[in-house]
Design goal:
InterPro entries: MFS_dom, MFS_sugar_transport-like, MFS_trans_sf, Myo-inositol_Transporter, Sugar/inositol_transpt, Sugar_transporter_CS. This is Major facilitator superfamily (MFS) profile domain-containing protein. Helices cover 74% and strands 0% of the residues. It has 21 helices and no strands. It is globular. The N terminus is likely disordered. It binds 1,2,3,4,5,6-hexahydroxy-cyclohexane.
Length: 531
């Protein structure tokens, strides 16, 4: 069923009925200039300026991103500052691995669980639960007396990160006007990267000037402050209109849509259209659930979501794409730089490695700002197809740099590298990071726009879990790979992942920029939707 506003778009989609029709055309004209581009239809909607209300919501919700970034970034400085202040001994490599990986492991557990909560209670309560966990985890870490105690604190923060990383992009995507959705979701990624920069700066400042024994406690404890602030802001943040309609609170939903559209007279006309689109989608969902339940008294009603996600072809396609992008975001190896760049730069002979690794975090931040400005104009698919090749080139050149200089592994730390080789490697790492930040760093977080409302939460939860599983694998295997394969082959391996990922994106990821959520999910109805 389609609203009038959707009709032309759906009609055009029906022409593209063939499941295997992969008429991939990478040389498409820019979305802005192409009269037939799908964006055009959605662009007519809410194309005005972003309302002040949406800005405020984006900043308030973005605090979750800040916490995600801060808590993942702060660990690298924490590990080098703890010294003997826990359990009265130096940390072993095993301690370090467990402390680091416990966070991603628990984030992996939390994301699918919080998707169930987000459907039952709403998106906002999940943000609240995440904040409480962030506060509790920060306090536990700051007062740790032993390694296991710190691991418990890191695990609780992991639960918080898992919940926040799933719910914030979902919350923002469901509130943002279609024409600006990419930018709004990327603002959250910008907060993550800012959190990482702040963590690195604080880590470096404490390492250089702070009190070793207590400094790290302050660093991890600081994470509680933004979480407390967000708890207060939550009083003023609304629930998303999509969830409200589903919960039969239509008046509230309409009021929220009105606020997000702003006072622009053109946007005001859109309120009804948006509201009706959401209503239609919710009604369709209820119809399909009651058909699936027969008499509606199915004891295994909770299985419906899984059945819908895995057996309805368009949902299965959405899940495949979302998991592919999230897996690729991590398996391309970016976070091995985030977690271990100080180790790599030490190996390259840089005198202040923590400062050099700050350059990784800052490049990531700066190019996320660029992505923010480009994403809704260029489109998600296109920005990935343009940026991933630069990642591969950066990685392969880094590998060559290691090879040519004879620097084979971390154990070879004493090998004298020429300054030229070290700089060559640093520059290529920067190229890789910049290209990552432009595309893969943010596009996978637009995952919720691929799923229809009935499976949006579950699908996004599973895709987020894929992200954390891959993050866990990369964090755990990077150092052993450097030793087993040599530094250059490790980077070649990440380069191969990028090339394979580029092919997969070209093959199955359609453009969703500018489409309303209801339109975007319709793209996968009859195949991969790639034009
Ligand atoms: O989108 C974010 C961002 O790119 C971060 O810098 C990275 O550390 C995260 O793993 C990723 O999910």
């Amino acid at each position: 069923m389609a609203s009038q506003a959707e009709a032309p778009l759906l009609a055009r989609r029906d022409d593209d009925d063939d499941d295997d029709d992969n008429d991939n055309d990478f040389d498409e004209a820019p979305l802005d200039d192409d009269p037939n581009a799908p964006m055009k239809d959605g662009k007519a909607r809410q194309a005005g300026r972003l309302s002040f209300f949406v800005w405020l919501l984006t900043l308030s919700a973005g605090i979750s991103g800040l916490l995600f970034g801060y808590d993942t970034g702060v660990i690298s400085a924490t590990l080098v500052s703890i010294g003997t202040s826990l359990s009265n001994r130096e940390l072993t490599s095993l301690d370090k691995s467990i402390i680091t990986s416990s966070t991603s492991l628990f984030a992996l557990v939390a994301s699918p669980l919080s998707s169930i909560l987000a459907d039952r209670l709403g998106r906002k309560p999940v943000i609240l639960v995440a904040d409480i966990l962030f506060i509790f985890g920060a306090i536990l870490q700051a007062f740790s007396v032993s390694v296991p105690h710190l691991v418990v604190g890191r695990s609780i923060v992991g639960l918080a990160i898992g919940a926040a990383s799933f719910v914030t992009p979902l919350y923002l995507a469901e509130l943002a006007p279609a024409a600006h959705r990419g930018m709004v979701v990327t603002m959250n990624v910008l907060s993550i990267t800012l959190g990482q920069v702040v963590a690195y700066v604080i880590g470096w400042a404490f390492a250089e000037h702070g009190n070793q024994a207590t400094g790290w406690r302050l660093m991890v404890g600081l994470g509680a402050v933004p979480a407390i602030l967000q708890c207060l802001l939550l009083f003023f943040m609304p629930e998303t209109p999509r969830w409200l309609v589903k919960a039969k609170r239509s008046d509230e939903a309409r009021a929220v849509i009105q606020k997000t559209c702003g006072s622009d007279p053109f946007a005001m006309q859109e309120v009804d259209v948006i509201f009706k689109d959401i209503e239609i989608e919710v009604r369709d969902e209820e119809d399909s659930v009651s058909m699936g339940n027969g008499d509606g008294k199915n004891r295994y009603g909770w299985l419906n979501g899984w059945r819908e996600l895995l057996f309805v072809p368009k949902n299965r396609r959405a899940l495949t794409i979302a998991c592919l992008l999230q897996g690729l975001q991590q398996l391309c190896g970016f976070n091995s730089l985030m977690y271990f760049s100080a180790t790599i730069f030490l190996m390259l002979g840089f005198t202040v490695p923590t400062l050099t690794s700050l350059s990784v975090a800052s490049t990531n931040f700066v190019f996320t700002v660029v992505a923010l400005l480009l994403i809704d104009r260029i489109g998600r698919r296109r920005i990935l197809l343009y940026s991933i090749p630069f990642m591969a080139v950066g990685l392969l050149a880094t590998a060559l740099g290691f090879r040519a200089s004879g620097m084979l592994s971390i154990a070879a730390r004493d090998t004298e590298l020429t300054q030229g080789a070290a700089i060559f490697i640093l520059v290529n790492i920067m190229v890789y990071v910049a290209a990552y930040a432009l595309g893969l760093g943010n596009v996978p977080w637009m995952q919720s726009e691929l799923f229809p409302l009935n499976v949006r939460s579950l699908g996004s939860g599973l895709a987020t879990a894929t992200n954390w599983l891959a993050n866990f694998i990369v964090g755990l295997t990077f150092l052993p790979l450097m030793d087993a394969l040599t530094a250059s082959w490790t980077f070649v391996l990440y380069g191969i992942v990028c090339v394979a990922g580029w092919i997969a994106v070209w093959w199955i990821y359609p453009e969703t920029a500018g489409l309303s959520l209801e339109e975007a999910t319709g793209l996968l109805e009859h195949g991969w939707g790639v034009r």
